[in-house]
Amino acid sequence: MEKKQSSSAVGKMNGVDFSDLAYESGFGNSFSSEAIDGALPPGQNNPLVCPYGLYAEQLSGTSFTCPRKLNQRSWLYRIKPSVTHEPFKPRVPSHGRLVGEFDKSNSSTTPTQLRWRPLDIPDLPTDFVDGLYTICGTGSSFLRHGYAIHMYTANKSMENSAFCNADGDFLVVPQKGRLWITTECGRLQVSPGEIAVLPQGFRFDVSLPDGPSRGYVAEIFGAHFQLPDLGPIGANGLAAPRDFLTPKAWFEEKSCPGYTIVQKFGGELFTAKQDFSPFNVVAWHGNYVPYKYDLSKFCPYNTVLVDHGDPSINTVLTAPTDKPGVALLDFVIFPPRWLVAEHTFRPPYYHRNCMSEFMGLVYGGYEAKADGFLPGGASLHSCMTPHGPDTKTFEATIARGNEAAPYKITDTMAFMFESCLIPRICPWALESPAIDPDYYQCWTGLRSHFSSEVKDNVSFEESRNGQH
Predict the structure, then answer these.
(1) Does the annotation mark 357 as catalytic?
(2) Checking phi first, is residue 19 left (phi over 0); if not, alpha (psi -120 to 50) or beta?
(3) Marked catalytic residue, from 24, 357, 367, 418
(4) Can you tell me the distance from the alpha carbon of 74 to that of 290, in angstroms, rounded to the nearest whole number?
(5) pLDDT tens by residue, 353-389
(6) Quick one: pLDDT band at residue 153, thresholds 50, 70, 90?
(7) pTM of the full predicted structure?
(8) Where is 219: in which H helix or E strand?
(9) Is 351 an annotated catalytic residue?
(10) How many CB atoms lie within 10 A of CB 228?
(11) DSSP states of 330-385 as a string?
């Protein structure tokens, strides 16, 4: 199990000090933050001359005419504007394993259940950008609709370079090793057991204070994550807005000859040179920001009498579509929690779903799979593909019978990216040495328990009324 480090951990990397991290609190808030008092212009966004001779620059995450309640934008006050760079050129060598538009030329479909073992960390020096590769996805970043699911393995920090994703928002789930992420709004420390959202267009770099690192990334095109509606649950529960943390303003002013901006655009990488750090934002205000969230703060809801609840009750963030209740992508977690249902098969039930489900495991085990699903691994069950508990889990659950006492699932953090869109799978994912060709065998031991004879079964009603 990866132990989560305190946000106040002391350290420096690439000359950036992460010993004094400070955050603003709240989801969807409009924040104001300045690293130097008085750096924010009073009363307006872009005065003729900004305080301290800074440049005003707006970063828009939605169209200008988007309804006010949906509009996302921030104003950045920086030492030099981000436009000050040489022309972009295709990156050489090209990456080759990032996809921003999915079709038959670069991906394929299969209804077969798929599972991957954890990939080894590479031996050659590999940073976050080079270690990022697409597993599956659908749609098009050009058409602003769809998603991609990536994984990353890395062993070195980014040096004299920053990454910018023009295609969509990244939701990063580290599984091994902390990430020190420097953004234009400030610095984030993200440990296994936490997540970070890096919105479209922000420049950032990733340092690895613990060395080798591995994790998952969901990318959404043309949408942003929001908190799910709580409906009958009421006003509280699941992920609380106050537990989402946004970095406070922090900047560096230094000459950086040959500094490289790596831009992801349509799934391809381009580079441009400049002579200064992009993290030169002295102050900023707005509601379009990177943020992090500690998954241990999630307040789960669950069954308290009968039946297993749908996984939607564990939704942390959602990117909705135009259809009410239908998600482009949900981020769902399966955290430590009590199981108390009576007369109920408590693990997840056998299921076919119009949604497609990609699962990962940060640490511990997963309640529906006794073997084979490992931390750092993944599985994919696409639209209407049957899935559910493996043979060992089913038999062990049945053996406990109706007298099983309430028990708590501990030391685990599994998650799911769930989408209404059917994913196409990249060839390197299907050909990966980490793919488990025997995944299907975890169900082949399931045997028939059927008998046409009436058995002395105790019904729920009889159990509840004490008639047995």
Answers:
(1) yes
(2) alpha
(3) 357
(4) 11
(5) 999 999 999 999 999 999 999 999 999 999 999 999 9
(6) very high
(7) 0.93
(8) strand 213-221
(9) yes
(10) 22
(11) EEEEE-SEEE--SSS--SPPPB--SSEEEEEEEES-BTTBSSS--TT-EEEE-TT-
